[in-house]
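Q&A FORM
Asked by: J.P.
Topic: structure of Transcriptional regulator

PROVIDED:
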Amino acid sequence: MIRALGDPLRLQIVTLLARETLCTTHLVEETGAKQTNLSNHMKVLREAGLVETEPCGRFTYYKLKPDVLAGLSGQFAELAESARTAAENKRACP
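REPLIED BY: S.T.
REPLY: Here is the structure written out as tokens.
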């Protein structure tokens, strides 16, 4: 999932989808990416479980899965808390 969000275009797509559900045409217009390139990035986001599709006639709409993002956010919050707690723990070198 982190790898999927590590690409600047995919992060831009996720940011756009956080605001509204969009079809491929909208995403191409907003990002300036070519449709084939965008489709490849959408596949990565779908396979990572971040995005789901919603068919609508001849168009496909994409929307974020907020529960997945919330779970990821929770995991990062736990890591941050562990890092705060462990900041003073230093293992002595032999």
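FOLLOW-UP: The chain has a mean pLDDT of 90.
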